[in-house]
């Protein structure tokens, strides 16, 4: 059966990945009129941190609007690490520095195999430019976005396994009172442990929120999503937005209070993307995409010519994508239980694999 699915997927035309929004997306407290100078560090460049430890830049791992990630070797120990350097570091951009400080605070206290570990923040000067970097574990692999780009829609067994691992990570965040607020394939790393075993790790905690700060974690979704004109007036301004438009929850794009259930909606979009090879909503611009999260109907998979997604998996995805947080799963632990039950019925041979063999409450 799996071989037939692979053949069907190979013959199906690939759906292009959604274009990145043209409007810049800025972190809280940082307005679009402020310029962010890009600093590209040459490969092979040596630098010394504030403790006097020497490092060598080995490779560029990735780059975004706010930061670039490099593979770096610490010369004293020979340890290889990933270091994410902000594109700007000065007294005039305290919000950017605060993002890194927040990220290390969150990641330093979480010990979960499916969350990328961060260990330190380093300060240095490269070619006269003061820079700050977040030191993280180096993962030899690629992102889930790259996996979807190459494969198109993923096999149900691969979706279920990765989804269960991410559910474990999200449940860990919930118990720690943390809201990620930027769940998307680009922020999920795939680490190959062996020729036959892979795990995913949730990364990029730069715009996390805390339930104690997010209106005491009420997460109430106020307003009628059907009232387009009213809701449109509450849309979060694109230049003040936290998150990625294609993966934001209705309450996030509306500027309403959020809790961990907002992450579960984004998780649902991610699972939809894995199953369909495309996100559920597109639009003329980021604002149009955001509005569709509030008013749009989630397309059925058959619209993409996909008929091999198990009913139980589609039901999980659609429940995660409910507009009202109260209608979704209430915890990632509940999502894990639903995934495990579906696997038990259709793929019982996977129940002995991690994390299905775990008890996640």
Entry summary:
This protein has 361 residues and is α+β, with helices and mostly antiparallel strands. It is built from ten helices and eleven strands. The chain starts with a helix and ends in a 15-residue tail after the last helix.
Number of strands: 11
Distance between the termini: 32 Å
Rg on CA atoms, Å: 21 Å
Helix-strand pattern: HEEEEHEEEHHEEEEHHHHHH
Q: Can you list the strand order of the major beta sheet?
A: 1-2-3-4-6-5
Shape summary: globular
What is the CATH first-level class name of the largest domain? Mainly Alpha
Please tell me the total number of domains. 2
Characterization of this structure:
With 361 residues, the chain is α+β, with helices and mostly antiparallel strands. The protein has 2 domains: 46-137, Phosphorylase Kinase, domain 1; 140-350, Transferase(Phosphotransferase), domain 1 (Orthogonal Bundle). The chain contains 10 helices and 11 strands. The chain has helices at 2-11, 94-108, 144-151, 156-175, 228-232, 250-253, 260-276, 286-295, 311-320, 332-346; strands at residues 46-48, 54-63, 67-74, 80-86, 118-126, 129-137, 141-143, 178-179, 188-192, 198-202, 209-210. It has a 6-stranded antiparallel sheet with strand order 1-2-3-4-6-5, with helices on one face. A hairpin with a 3-residue loop joins strand 2 (54-63) and strand 3 (67-74). Helix 4 runs antiparallel to helix 7 and helix 7 crosses helix 9 (311-320). The longest helix has 20 residues, at 156-175. The protein starts with a helix and ends in a 15-residue tail after the last helix. The relative contact order is 0.13.
């Amino acid at each position: 059966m799996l071989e037939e699915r692979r053949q069907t997927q190979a013959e199906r035309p690939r759906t292009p990945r959604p274009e990145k929004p043209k409007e810049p997306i800025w972190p809280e407290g940082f307005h679009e009129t402020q310029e962010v100078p890009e600093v590209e560090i040459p490969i092979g460049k040596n630098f010394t941190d504030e403790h006097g430890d020497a490092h060598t830049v080995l490779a560029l791992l990735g780059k975004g609007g706010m930061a670039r990630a490099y593979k770096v070797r610490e010369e004293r120990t020979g340890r290889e690490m990933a270091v994410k350097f902000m594109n700007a570091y000065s007294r005039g951009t305290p919000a950017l520095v605060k993002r890194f400080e927040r990220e290390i605070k969150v990641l330093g206290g979480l010990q979960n195999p499916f969350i990328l570990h961060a260990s330190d923040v380093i300060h240095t000067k490269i070619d006269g430019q003061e820079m700050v970097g977040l030191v993280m574990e180096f993962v030899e692999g690629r992102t889930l976005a790259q996996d979807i780009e190459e494969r198109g829609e993923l096999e149900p067994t691969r979706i279920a396994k990765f989804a269960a691992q991410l559910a474990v990570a999200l449940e860990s965040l919930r118990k720690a009172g943390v809201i990620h607020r930027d769940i998307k394939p680009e922020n999920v790393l795939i680490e190959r442990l062996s020729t036959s075993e892979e795990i995913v790790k949730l990364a990029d905690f730069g715009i996390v929120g805390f339930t104690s700060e997010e209106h005491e974690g009420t997460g109430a979704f106020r307003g009628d999503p059907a009232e387009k004109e009213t809701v449109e007036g509450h849309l979060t301004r694109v230049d003040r937005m936290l998150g990625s438009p294609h993966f934001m929850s209705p309450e996030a794009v509306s500027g309403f209070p959020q809790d961990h259930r907002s992450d579960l909606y984004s998780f649902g979009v991610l699972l939809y993307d894995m199953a369909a090879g495309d996100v559920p909503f597109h639009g003329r611009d980021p604002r149009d995409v955001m509005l569709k999260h509030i008013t749009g109907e989630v397309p059925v998979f058959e619209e993409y010519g996909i008929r091999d997604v198990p009913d139980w998996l589609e039901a999980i995805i659609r429940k995660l994508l409910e507009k009202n947080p109260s209608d979704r799963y209430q915890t990632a632990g509940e999502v894990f239980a639903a995934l495990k039950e579906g696997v038990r019925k259709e793929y019982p041979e996977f129940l002995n694999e991690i994390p299905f063999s775990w008890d996640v409450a």
